Structure prediction request, 228 residues.
Amino acid sequence: MVSPRYDLGIDTAAADASLALLDGDRVVAEHAWHVETTMSLELLEALDGLLARAGVTRQEIARIAVCAGPGQYGGLRTGIATAQGLAVGLGIPLAAVGRLEADAWPHLVEGGPVVIAIHDAGPEALAWAGYTPGVAGGLPSVYAEPHIARPADVVRDAPQPAIWVGELTEALHEVRDIASRGGDTDARAEARAAHLVRIARARGLFGDPGAVDAVYLRPPSITPPKQR
Prediction:
């Protein structure tokens, strides 16, 4: 009988999705891909392929961390539902981790500047949050909670200097003096899945799969049913 030992990260917040399997601090297997059809069609196939390459069975998964958003509605719902189904079926804990913190996490260096994480939320709208590196080995703290704002307002409210990561849109660049505001890192090509696991561990987020839900900074654009 196998003993669960691996932590699985699932990120489906955008069309650039990722999976990661960790054994302690070591990334055993990782897969990032661009969804060409639908997340529901590609996610389980990608997960089975990841486990096969690592030589790991589902029964060896001990915990799961899933991206809770903000992001694309359909992709988020698919990732969370899949993670919940796996967690319930395997009898293991599940953690929900925010996308913006996952983008900021690898750039948070003790003694370094605040990290501003950006998600493109549509025409002239950005979802953003700010994170301050921890001190003396402590965890990072929240400088600005995730919320929606115009690019000009993000630039106004962000500190100087700062590291900017994520989906750095043209509209954002148009209102920013990049030279005076610190470095830029486009995190879209970087897999988030492993960082989801690391954050869930550090913050002790693993728990009841039924308590996990998506983070929406504004209501989903779905037409409510007509009253009869």
Notes: The longest strand covers residues 26-34. The longest helix spans residues 73-90.
